[in-house]
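Quick one - inputs below.
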Amino acid sequence: MEQEYVLSMQNITKIYKDGFVANKNIDFSVRKGDIHGLVGENGAGKSTLMKVLFGQELPETGKIFFKGEEVNISSPLAALKLGIGMVHQHFMLVPSLTVAENMVFGMEPTKGGLFDFKEAVRLTEEVAQKYGLPIDPNMKIRDLYVGQKQRVEILKMLLRNVEVLILDEPTAVLTPQETQELFVQLVKLKEQGYTIIFISHKLGEIKQICDRLTVLRDGCSIQTVDVDSVTEQDISRMMVGRNAVNSLVKTPPKIGQVKLRVKRLNYFNGFGKHVLQNVSFQVRGGEILGIAGIEGNGQREISEMITGIDSIQSGEILVNGTCVKGKSVREIREMGVAHISEDRMTYGAAAEASIEQNLISDRFYKKQYQRGQILNKKVIQRTSRELIKSFTIKCDGGSAPVKTLSGGNIQKVVAAREFSQSPQVMVANQPTRGIDVGASELIREKLIALRDEGAAVLLISADMGELREVSDSLIVLCNGKIVAYFETVEGLSENELGEYMLGLKEQTPEEIGRCFQ
Amino acid sequence: MNKTKKIEAFFFVLRDLCAIGIALLISLILIFAVSQDGWGAFRLFLFGPLQTVSRMGYIVEKMIPLMFTGVGVCLMVRCGQMNMGSEGAFYLGGVACAAAAIKIALPAGIHPLVCMLAAGVVGALACGVTAVLHTKFHALTIVTSLMMNYICLYLGQYFINHPLWDSMSGYQASFKYAQTALLPKLFSRTNIHAGLFAAVAVVILGHILLEKSTFGYRIKMVGTNLHFARYSGINVTATIIICELIGGFLAGFGGAVEQLGMYKRFEYSGLSGHGFDGVMIAVIAGNNPKYIPLAALFLAYVRVGAEAMARMSDVPPELVSIVQSVVIMLVVAEKFLAGWKHRVIAKQSMKDLALTEVK
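Output:
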């Protein structure tokens, strides 16, 4: 039995230092030459298990067998030495350096004691040719497309002679077109005898490319099966532990007055890049306007300028007819603007602080929360208890530090704060990225409820399913420009959307102009 | 309080105690290495401070200024600012106090208050410069504050050596302070002075400010995640500047208390070390004002013990510096005992897990 598996993890338990049990007695085995899917909701323990395999985390218990022998993987270096490589969800590349330089990190070729750039280029070209994954070694990483960056990461591992390649949610950042391209590459690698572990929660992809799959749920291994023997519904049931989720109930929008108007917004970043070019749009009360686009195409700048975190360079932003230029974040918030930031752990929450402290950060200075200059603990605790209940935040009381919560629950804390001041304008930037289905559903429901109360909602997302499900109308952002406007999302296909997102197609100015009358 | 938090709190205390224990062990070894009468010297070091009333007095006298700088540092560090300027603020505050105590004539009750306020304001400015440079020009706080210490020192020396210099003293010292300015002594046979009340008040107020007040909440949010604070609408710049002004004010105020309680004239020929000691005890206290008296007690006790040992045995007082350093290194070493802590937490989680599964 054992020989059949190139890799086998037995009885793995991993507990983080805050006491969170990420993996419970997991057994996980992979056959040689397979593309093996590792699926589960966010927080199910997929990434943790793979980090254990790659030596980034040390497990409390468990054994790892590689090619039939027990091995001790104490660091990523040890894993690489054995021939196990990992491509992370967030790329580990230095943007200001070239592809070749990034490729040889930690194994730099030298000539006379100095770094040999030419040799690095040669090595890169050689490995790129060998595996049929072309890349220009002289390009700077920051000038590459996301798909190309991922290719560099994969080549980096191949250059290190890995035999088992772990890909952590490789398609999360890709468009449908780029995803298909990646799959072609992966099949090629498989044909050359490589073993690939493919982490995902997108069932369609798993069905398309994997041979076998293992489902994790709540840190436990549920089942390992041949992909052909199950349907997507089966997998979904194993992942969630109940039958498929209900879809959202949405009534037609009751459009009101314009609440948010963005006029000819331009923005140059610190490197002089023209990040936003003449962006204009408006959102009316009772409407959810979606902004589609690959991350890094100006979405962040738009949301930060509306909410006052970044200052407006040129152009105008009006909230209920009042210009926000020069106003502080607090003044803008008092005008009724709420903001779910795309970067949960940097902007959305303070990890070390308690849930209570996180929930009151936008309102602690208001009369009802203090007595004299002293915070009113009772009121704060009561408010927190109510919010924890109504947003079903799973936690050990309001005084627990936010860092002890799972990603989805942290985002619920953020949402609880932002939704509970009855905002007029909600700027939700990637509100459900990287969180479990339950939390995502809750946040989407709240967005729709807020719109039904008459607020204007701006939903920035890279999740096309979410955009089509939640938004009423949609604009597409590519390279800092609005390239398309759809008055309604009905009948819009993901493929068509993908083409606009990639910049393959663009509407006429007249068509786009309709989003700003 | 949840269980993980309890375990973390337990290990915070355990780490400090272990650090102190190991440091004492090392000092014991060192004492035996250099001394003819090892046990005698070690006993002096350990119990000497409690053997006479005057030594017990020394402990409290040494604690008083440390409580001011220590609380000040706590506030600044909790705001995320590693401001080392307490040292200069303490010194320059002392000089400002000297000027006020020498040049201004006031009745007894008010005179010390005016001196302390003057010192506090000067101290606040000393740390405030760093805060403004940091928030406006992104100058590194730790660098500018260390540089500020020199500016404070030489500025102070100018005043002591020129306008305030008493040429009759025969050394580098100011004129004598007016009698009306001096703080009264509290007990006979010791130099414990009324500044003790101010020090205790500062600890209590510091605790309330940081843990209970609205402004303390701002400080903590800015300190724990500045981006989060800004995103939430907190004025980060103002919070940092005000916080460092308060930190500097406390250090300067402490400098005045020390001058008026312990000295008749300004005699420092250089920086006194009280600011850096403040950083040290803030570290031991985990930047919690309520633990500052304990940390100050520890430092003062060790120093008095070392002095007693130096006077009455053949062990040099430099030894105490080694003990201090070992304690600090072990206390700041976050990973010290981390493996054990992790195992305890892991075990607790496993137990919880087993319980929920039984249910």
